[in-house]
């Protein structure tokens, strides 16, 4: 039995069934518009990029086109970079950071890098400021064969033909106070487990792949982001979110084993960014700028090694 306050849906120690899922869905309120915030911004990019839908998420009578934007003159000999945002819909700076990369950074790398951007992988969750999808599934634990998440399966299908062409993949995320107040208690309740409190790091950090660590790549990103916002320090245990620091602002996860988005591309260089938007030391604009700086470092790193 959990010792901390229990989530308001479900029975302690018992996984959710259909009734609990229905209760959870009833709590999800549309707070913003994917059409207005994301699709409208993408429309403005059509003159400079190839824009296409790579699928559709359908939940009841709601239909969300999934959009990808890529370099207009894709050249097979150039290094490819994949940028993904909004795998967790509530992580706002990832979505808007990916869009701003296309608006502000991408033109400078035309002819140097092939760029593919999926700026909002989970549009239903974006509108509800939610981590999970409609089925209470975390897309960023669902990038695996026979994925139960529509969002994850569609992105994997988009990327599969490009395996071997992609040199780098950066997946843009946030770690928020609501991770601890809402989302971690929710997953414990959903799975019938006890909620174990943790801490939220104050600052930016990166997740590298434990099966394919690339310290120089991560360091290049950290150095760029540090000019924009602060890097998360180690906690009292010498780590971040339960993982030991392997370098300044860097931890390791087993990306493929955990079904994480950053493990889908087969790229040599992969990273997941984590911005902290609830910090007293950061503004929403800084959070977006940090994501843009991270992608800029990736583009520069890849264009240099491709020369």
TrEMBL record:
InterPro entries: AstE_AspA_cat (IPR055438), Peptidase_M14 (IPR000834). Pfam families: AstE_AspA_cat. Residues 30-302 form the Peptidase M14 domain. GO terms for biological process: proteolysis. The keyword Zinc applies. The active site is at residue 274. Gene3D superfamilies: Zn peptidases. GO terms for molecular function: hydrolase activity, acting on ester bonds; metallocarboxypeptidase activity; zinc ion binding. Its cofactor is Zn(2+). Keywords: Hydrolase, Metal-binding, Zinc. Belongs to the peptidase M14 family. This is Peptidase. It comes from Rhodoferax fermentans.
